[in-house]
UniProtKB/TrEMBL annotation:
<dbReference type="InterPro" id="IPR011990">
    <property type="entry name" value="TPR-like_helical_dom_sf"/>
</dbReference>
<protein>
    <submittedName>
        <fullName>Pentatricopeptide repeat-containing protein, mitochondrial</fullName>
    </submittedName>
</protein>
<keyword id="KW-0677">Repeat</keyword>
<dbReference type="InterPro" id="IPR046960">
    <property type="entry name" value="PPR_At4g14850-like_plant"/>
</dbReference>
<dbReference type="GO" id="GO:0003723">
    <property type="term" value="F:RNA binding"/>
</dbReference>
<dbReference type="GO" id="GO:0009451">
    <property type="term" value="P:RNA modification"/>
</dbReference>
<dbReference type="InterPro" id="IPR002885">
    <property type="entry name" value="PPR_rpt"/>
</dbReference>
<dbReference type="Pfam" id="PF01535">
    <property type="entry name" value="PPR"/>
</dbReference>
Length: 101
């Protein structure tokens, strides 16, 4: 399977089977793109699991070298708005301003 196929499966699993099963698929992925990371972060934020979202963000940015692109930031802001998570919402806003995204 390609990274795109894996990401489509991941998105479907997170939406229909939940985050626990989604995390299993995410962990099984041989390669992860920014969209796969965004699916998981947005899923955790939307469900109110802030600490898990922050852990993934840290891993995405610092360990894997993926930057936060415009789509990722928009997804994160949407999830923050839906969950009422102002802490991460503010962090995303500051990040976007500093990076000029």
């Amino acid at each position: 399977k390609s990274v795109v196929s894996w990401t489509v499966v991941l998105d479907t699993v997170v939406k229909w089977e939940g985050l626990e099963r989604g995390r299993e698929v995410f962990n099984e992925m041989p390669e992860r793109n920014a969209v796969a990371w965004t699916v998981m972060v947005a899923g955790y934020l939307g469900a109110g699991f802030t600490s898990e979202a922050l852990e993934l963000l840290a891993e995405m940015v610092f360990q894997c070298g993926h930057g936060l692109n415009f789509v990722t930031l928009c997804s994160m802001l949407s999830a923050c708005a839906q969950s009422g998570n102002l802490v991460i919402g503010r962090w995303v806003h500051v990040y976007a301003l500093k990076k000029g995204t």
